[in-house]
Design a protein that fits this description.
The structure holds two protein chains of two kinds. Chain A is built from four helices and five strands. By secondary structure, chain A is of the alpha+beta class. Chain A has a five-stranded mixed sheet. The longest helix of chain A has about 55 residues. The two termini of chain A are about 55 Å apart. Chain B is of the alpha/beta class. Chain B has six helices and twelve strands. In chain B, strand 1 and strand 2 form a beta hairpin. Chain B is elongated and about 105 Å long. The chains are: A alpha+beta, B alpha/beta. At the A-B interface, helix 2, helix 3, strand 4 and strand 5 of A face helix 1, strand 6 and helix 4 of B.
């Protein structure tokens, strides 16, 4: 090992003697320049690496906050003016209002922080969405799902769904009397999962 | 012969000078990057807090309750900036924008966070509020049906002088400790809100003429909007009133459709025409002054609804 080191020192000394002084200085400057470029590149790469981890965290954090918003909003949605029942019941949705919201999809797209919003009746809990009968003005109340808006309406590709159980009430008319007919339903709302394109 | 002076200078080759310059440049770049990174972290933290703050407003949905309240405790002295209220963007609902910053080293406030929009809430507060502990409460706004919940942030002490029992009860039931009801104006430490003709008031409220006088402006109110007028900046108040009227129009459309639905079920609906007039008047509202006329029409619709059979009422 010692022999090797002394050999290299000898080679460098010989090289120094063989080369003219100006060339030697040039070589040293080049060495230094290369060294500095590599140091710079090293820090730049390390910075980029840190930035990737950092931005990954931001996306995770943003999704977490968005999901938290969806969760807090969905649990309070039944009490909002667009949904709440005429009768004084908490966590109750007025189906007669819901059919209007399902009809006029456009405006509320930008109001709630959800990527999609639907209300599914209990009879369709074990069905796939494609198999459910969508509620419209003509088939209401003999239908299974109220689609207020879909993720496609907002041009969203990926979403994560959350749901909350509510009672769904509507006015019924029988033998000259009107009464409230209620059933179990669930509000299903989506949170957009943003991907890097 | 001139004597040569020994300056004891250090010989420095070109490579050393080059290394110093380049090294210095790299060092400066590193310092710049670190400072930027700290700034970005500050903004990131602030933006997260602002976004979480917006989430905190959701549980304030009143539902059947007459009001809800919450207390926000920050770790450090914090500021919420009112970045603007825009009734004409995000149509038809409009939007508000807020940002956040908190105290860093040496009692200085850090960089403002990114702007966070609020699209489905109506938040009433001053242009910039500061504090470590803030009270937030919400009150439903009916005209004649529930239009939305009004969210009010109370960051500092308010003294309500000569307040009517209704307002006293509302705020005391909500446990808003920042609002006190002293007997004399002299006892007040904070912003003085007078409900009579007292002197030395920051804000004057006329319950009989339905207006709040503050910053040289008159803000007209109806029912619970009085809280918005007291605690918000005039610009925010006027903007939120416009946003609320747009919301009234949207919720009104739902009720217009519902009229058709209840008619199918043997109910006679006499509200439709008046409701349509209310909705179109609400959409053409330019300032809070017009809310007084709208309130009259709203009361008329409400009495028609109340007179209907219980099973045929459009709204509760």
């Amino acid at each position: 090992m010692k022999q090797k080191k002394s050999n290299s020192q000898l080679n460098f000394a010989m090289c120094n003697k063989l080369l003219p002084k100006s060339k030697r200085s040039q070589l040293k400057i080049q060495e230094m320049a290369f060294m500095l470029v590599f140091v710079f590149l090293f820090f730049a790469l390390a910075g980029l690496f840190a930035l990737t981890i950092f931005s990954g965290n931001i996306k995770q954090e943003a999704l977490k906050i968005a999901e938290m918003r969806t969760l807090t909003s969905i649990t309070n949605l039944a009490d909002s003016p667009e949904f709440y029942c005429v009768v004084s019941k908490s966590n109750c949705i007025d189906a007669d209002k819901l059919i209007s919201l399902a009809k006029n999809k456009t405006n509320y797209l930008i109001f709630w922080p959800f990527s999609s919003l639907k209300v599914v009746k209990m009879q369709a809990f074990d069905k796939k969405e494609s198999e459910m009968i969508e509620c419209n003005w003509a088939n209401y109340p003999d239908c299974e799902i109220f689609v207020i808006y879909k993720k496609e309406n907002k041009n969203i590709k990926n979403e994560r769904l959350m749901s909350s159980y509510v009672s769904l009430c509507r006015k019924e008319y029988e033998n000259g009397y009107t009464y409230d007919k209620c059933e179990i339903a669930k509000i299903v709302a989506g949170t957009e999962i943003k991907t890097m394109d | 012969m001139k004597k040569r002076v020994d300056k004891k200078a250090i010989e420095m080759g070109f490579n050393w000078i080059f290394a110093f310059i380049a090294g210095g440049f790299i060092l400066l770049l590193a310092i710049y990057a670190t400072t930027k990174f700290v700034g970005v972290q500050e903004v990131k933290g602030g933006t997260e807090t602002a976004a979480q703050l917006v989430s905190l407003f959701d549980p304030l949905e009143t539902g059947l309750a007459s009001g809800e309240s919450n207390q926000i405790n920050f770790n450090k002295q914090s500021r919420i900036y009112n970045e603007g209220c825009f009734p004409d963007s995000n149509r038809p609902f409009g939007k508000q924008e807020i940002s956040f910053s908190e105290q860093t080293f040496g009692n200085k406030f850090g960089e403002r966070s990114e702007i966070v929009p609020i699209k489905n809430k109506y938040v009433f507060f001053e242009d910039m509020i500061e504090g470590k502990k803030m009270y937030v409460f919400s009150m439903p706004f009916f005209m004649p049906f529930k239009v939305a919940d009004l969210i009010v942030i109370v960051p500092e002490k308010y003294c309500f002088y000569d307040a009517p029992a209704e307002i006293m009860n509302d705020l005391e039931n909500l446990n808003i400790h920042n609002v006190i009801f002293p007997n004399f104006t002299e006892e007040c430490k904070g912003r003085v809100v007078c409900f009579g003709d007292s002197e030395g008031c920051d804000i004057k409220v006329s319950m009989s003429d339905s207006y709040v006088q503050k910053s040289g402006k008159r803000l007209y109110f109806n029912k619970n909007l009085v809280y918005g007028a007291i605690f918000a900046s005039p610009q925010t108040y006027e903007c939120n009133v416009k946003r609320l009227m747009s919301k009234l129009n949207e919720v009104g459309r739902v009720y217009i459709d519902k009229i058709e639905m209840i008619q199918r079920k043997g109910c006679e609906a006499r509200i439709g025409d008046k409701l349509n007039i209310l909705m179109s008047n609400a959409m053409s509202l330019n300032s809070s002054r017009q809310i007084i006329q709208l309130a009259e029409l709203s009361d008329e619709i409400d009495s028609i609804n109340e007179a209907a059979k219980p099973g045929c009422r459009l709204f509760g």
